Write a sequence for this structure.
């Protein structure tokens, strides 16, 4: 087995890719991964704290609370461009191998700071040189994507729509409040006007003057 490091996490024309570089090798193991796994890996790499736990956070919490230790992960086979992996865990003094997708295995390795290994025959059969692949050669020189760029367009659109909806609700509330204030003010004016007329009829001119001042204040 050969130890490998994460060389880059990038997006190409065909989706998200995690690139592993075996130690002392010019080759790269390029593995296609899904959005959620890319999100989890990048969040761990940059130390981004997600409000609600993702699946790998949940597994991490289970392992930690159940005294299960992730020793390492192994990319142990490849067939028709599909990679296979195993988790090597320690529980109750025993080492246990668990089948896993490479993307999940790598995500957990990053969270547990565990070593990633690749079987030699996998490197031999699936390893590529970056200069031989135009897309990956471009990815080599690109900066790793930061977490916010992993938000899918549909999520971003939903967030924008949600913000617009909140803004619309607030504006409607303001308009409703203004409308209610106008109605309340108009009703209040009518009441004071009646009081003024009644005071004048009863020759209570001082009271009428006070009501007039109150009416003038409402009209300001």
């Amino acid at each position: 087995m050969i130890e490998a490091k994460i060389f880059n996490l990038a997006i190409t024309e065909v989706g998200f890719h995690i690139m592993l570089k075996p130690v002392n090798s010019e080759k790269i193991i390029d593995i296609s991964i899904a959005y959620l796994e890319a999100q989890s890996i990048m969040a761990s790499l940059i130390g981004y704290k997600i409000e609600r736990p993702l699946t790998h956070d949940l597994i991490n919490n289970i392992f930690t609370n159940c005294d299960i230790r992730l020793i390492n992960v192994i990319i142990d086979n490849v067939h028709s461009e599909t990679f296979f992996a195993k988790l090597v865990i320690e529980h109750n003094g025993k080492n246990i191998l668990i089948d896993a997708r490479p993307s999940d295995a790598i995500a957990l390795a990053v969270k547990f700071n565990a070593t990633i290994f690749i079987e030699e025959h996998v490197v031999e059969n699936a390893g590529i040189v970056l200069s031989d692949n135009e897309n990956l050669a471009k990815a080599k020189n690109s900066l790793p994507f930061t977490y916010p760029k992993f938000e899918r367009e549909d999520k971003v659109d939903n967030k924008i729509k949600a913000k617009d909806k909140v803004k619309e609700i607030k504006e409607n509330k303001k308009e409703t409040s203004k409308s209610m204030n106008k109605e309340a003010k108009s009703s209040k004016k009518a009441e004071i006007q009646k009081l003024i007329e009644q005071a004048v009829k009863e020759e209570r001119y001082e009271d009428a003057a006070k009501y007039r001042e109150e009416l003038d204040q409402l009209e300001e």
Observations:
- The first helix runs from residue 35 to 45.
- The longest strand covers residues 2-12.
- Confidence is low (pLDDT under 50) at residues 140-156.
- The radius of gyration is 33 Å.
